[in-house]
Write a structure and sequence with these properties.
By secondary structure, the protein is mostly helical. The protein contains 35 helices and four strands.
Length: about 675
Amino acid sequence: MMGGGLSVLGEQRLPGRTVSVLLGLLVFWTYGGVLSHSFMIDDYGLFLENPRRQDIGHIFSYLVPDQDSSLGGRDGIWGAEYRPLSFILPLLEYRIFREDPSGYHMVNLALFYLVSLGIEAMVSRLVRDREVGFWTAVFFIIHPLNGMLANYITASVLAVGLLAQMGSVMVFLKSCRGTRRWGLQGVSVLLFGVSLLCHEAAVMLPVYLMAVMIWQMRLRPVEAWRRVLPFLMLLVLYLIFRWEHAGLKSVLWDKIFMYENLSGMVYGATFVKLVLWYLEKFLTLDGIVLIWATPLVREGAGGWLAMGILLMAIVTYGLWRKGKGDALGAWVWFLLGLVPVMGGCIFTPSAGFIIEPHWLFFSSLGLFAGMALLMRRIIRRKIHAVVGTVALAVCVLALWSASQFYNTLWGDEKAYCRYWMREAPGYRSARFYLASSYLRGGDFAKARGWFQQALAGQKSDWQIYANLGDMASAQEDLSAARRYYEMALAWHPHSSTVFNNLGVVVMKGGDLAGAEVFFQEALRLNGILLEPRLNLALVYERRADKERALHLYEEAERMDPDHVDVLGSLTRIYLNEGKRPQARRMAERFLRLVRDEKALVSLGSLLASQRQDQLALRYFAKAVRRNPRYLPSYQEMGKVLANAGRFSEAIAVWEDGLRIHPESAVLRHLIQEAQFLQATGE
């Protein structure tokens, strides 16, 4: 934050700390309700279903562009994008919050707040007016276009990328005026590098810096070019690296040739349509979605393109003609912010052209700054002060109310997906996410229907067929499951996940040898996955090959020390092998991590059968605390106590259970038997 005070509505002045508090309160007032929201859409794949979420030992391997080769596999599940921090940051968060979504939302709110502070500071510096900076930040906070930063857990990396970009701009501006020029410029370049690891849209930062130097610092273009040369050098190295090793060619260049008859005219017209959609949503606040898609504009393409060019020329000329320096700068900022869309729009050829509002952060910033400049001008004219103040209040209330509507929508994954499908009917992924939501909820019939509608006849269909196979497998329709998995492999022949699931189906059918082949193939394709390793260990257990099974379980435990299935299996094997110290160590960790009463009672019963009574009692006690209505907890705890001759305690436990389940004949019988044994002294 800059020093000094802030004039609010042209009257009183507020100190910088008060401004920071006001922005923080506004963030919480607008988005505090999202703390109760659950995971949704990509959150599940990134946090709960990511096979490496516990794999902290390989955290920096995400910096390696070819994930599969670096890890000795050929799975291809990492995709052609190179955004390593989008994996590293969630992995670090998962170590803290596990499966509690409120923790992730708290981080997102904190990052949202920091971004708003960064906007206030950067815009204040650029226009030399803290009031404009403050209101720009206010509009950013309450406009529903930016609500995904708070509502969508996966968006945390976007906020980090924005902070890195704004930090780079601020440090660069300081380097232009300070004595430690080269050191500060090095920090600025480093922050630019960090932003590139978050999202490709950061490639425009050197251009933004040049615009600032030409517009604000009045430098000649040649001098501005010279000063951003280190940024351009890093950008060139990044682009070469991405082209050769990290999928830039397949993500962008190859996609161009997937479009049929994509001429420059059609491209330009469709791009104009995307921009106009964005402007419409910015102004009307209606129909904002995570991703919007449109078919290519072929009819009337010339008219669309001419309209876009004409609108841009009229606004640019009008601002230049009237000498509105700051407003013209905000408009140029808006135009430059559109450039990332020119590349990203071709990312999904099957959907036509797409646009994601979060790509346009700097465009939105230019529009918010323009709104703040307009409000300042109206309010500072005394004759318009009342009208301007009322207009500002209405604008703020409208934006805040719209954000509340979208917050509610984000809180219900199914409702959001249905809204998304209605607003972007050509974007099939919305159907996929709706189907996935029904799948997680166990409504297989609806999930199956939406998955079928999401099929697009392209490689990404493998995920749909894999999910259809999972549902068939869960319903014990093994032939259908195998058929779906084979269809998935037809689209993606190197999917370790599908090979693992196919092995499970074969193992259910009793073919252990066939299952072993599939599990081994899954591990060959992706050596870091736990599921095929655990399934292969289970195959060896069923064959009584305990040595090989134990080796795989111990290997899995080193990879994921907190995987409860691994800990439970190791506890069982160590007990059967008579390795009591190792068994107790695993059982203690299992007890600390597990919250499911059924799992606690199951392993507790095994411990009791191996004379580990005290540890077993702790298992049963935790099961009772977790779910006091779970009857087997009382039954098994009482049995351990009774077998140890502690009849009074056993009877007391069973009576506690009987008060909750008075219909239980089993508990009554156990109590009567214990009372008889206690009376006879046996």
